[in-house]
UniProtKB/TrEMBL annotation:
Domain of life assignment: Bacteria
Pfam hit, one: PNP_UDP_1
InterPro entries named in the record: Nucleoside_phosphorylase_d (IPR000845), Nucleoside_phosphorylase_sf (IPR035994)
Lineage: Bacteria, Bacillati, Actinomycetota, Actinomycetes, Kitasatosporales
Origin species: Streptomyces lydicus
Gene Ontology terms describing biological process: L-methionine salvage from S-adenosylmethionine; nucleoside metabolic process
Protein name, per record: 1-hydroxy-2-methyl-2-butenyl 4-diphosphate reductase
Boundaries of every Nucleoside phosphorylase domain copy: 39-183
Gene Ontology CC terms: cytosol
GO terms of molecular function: adenosylhomocysteine nucleosidase activity; methylthioadenosine nucleosidase activity
Length: 223
C-alpha cells in the first residue's frame, strides 16, 4: 500500500463500489485504480464488498491506510434499485442526501452534487435526484413502495454507510451516483445479475469521465 501523499499533493478521488462488475466498469482505462495518463489527479477505485457493514469497514480502512488524504473526495457508485414508477434500467440517480437503513438514521447531505447533475444531463442521460436510502438486503415489492412513499427515489446497500464513514473521517466533498439496474416495472432476480442489466453497466462505465470532471472542479479552490 502506498504511503501517505505529500500534504501539498492534489488529493486523489476515491470511488467506492460493492461488486466486482461495478469496479470493472468504474476503473475505466486505469490500472490498479489509478487513472491512465499520469498527468491528472489519481483516482482510487475501492471494492468494498456488499452490505453496509462491509462498506463502512472497507472505507474506514482505506481512509486510514494513507492511499488517500483527509481532503480526498468520496463518491459512492455502482448499481441501485429505483423506487419511483417509470424508472428504467440505465437511469442515473444523484443523491441529494443518503440515509442508512437503521430506524431514525441521520441523513448525510451531498452538497457538492450540482456539477454532477449538470454534466450527466448534458450527456443526455435520464437523471433523478433525491434521497438515496440504505438497506441491508435486496428490496422488493411492498417494501419498495413504502420507501418511495417515505421520500426516497432509490435504494442500495452501501452508499449511506460509505458516505457516513467518509464524513466521520473528516470533512470532505461526498457524492453518491448510482445507475438503476432494478426498477418497479423491471425487477431482476438478484441485484448482481448481469443479464437484463447490460444497459446499466454501459451507463455506469460512461459516467466515469463525469466523476473526473467533478474532481477537477473541486480542486480549483485549493490551488
Amino acid at each position: 500500500m502506498p504511503g501517505r501523499p505529500p500534504t501539498d499533493a492534489e488529493p486523489p478521488l476515491l470511488i467506492a463500489c460493492a461488486l466486482g462488475i461495478e469496479r470493472f466498469a468504474l476503473r475505466g482505462r486505469g490500472r490498479g485504480g489509478a487513472v491512465a495518463g499520469g498527468a491528472g489527479p489519481r483516482v482510487v477505485t475501492l471494492r468494498t464488498g456488499m452490505g453496509p457493514q462491509a462498506a463502512e469497514r472497507a472505507l474506514t480502512e482505506a481512509l486510514s491506510e494513507g492511499s488517500v488524504t483527509e481532503r480526498s473526495p468520496v463518491v459512492a457508485s455502482g448499481f441501485c434499485a429505483g423506487l419511483a414508477p417509470g424508472m428504467r434500467p440505465g437511469d442515473v440517480v444523484v443523491a441529494e442526501a443518503t440515509r442508512g437503513h437503521q430506524a431514525a438514521a441521520p441523513e448525510t447531505p451531498c452538497r457538492d452534487n450540482g456539477p454532477l447533475l449538470r454534466a450527466l444531463r448534458e450527456r443526455g442521460l435520464t437523471v433523478h435526484s433525491g434521497l438515496l436510502c440504505g438497506s441491508d438486503h435486496v428490496v422488493r415489492g411492498a417494501e419498495r413502495a413504502e420507501l418511495h412513499a417515505a421520500g426516497a427515489v432509490a435504494v442500495d446497500m452501501e452508499s449511506a454507510a460509505t458516505l457516513r464513514a467518509a464524513q466521520r473521517a473528516g470533512g470532505r466533498p461526498v457524492a453518491a451516483v448510482r445507475v438503476v439496474v432494478d426498477a418497479p416495472e423491471h425487477e431482476l432476480v438478484r441485484i448482481g445479475t448481469v443479464r437484463g442489466g447490460i444497459s446499466a453497466f454501459r451507463v455506469l462505465r460512461s459516467v466515469v469521465p463525469v466523476f473526473h470532471e467533478w474532481h477537477r472542479s473541486l480542486l480549483l479552490p485549493w490551488r
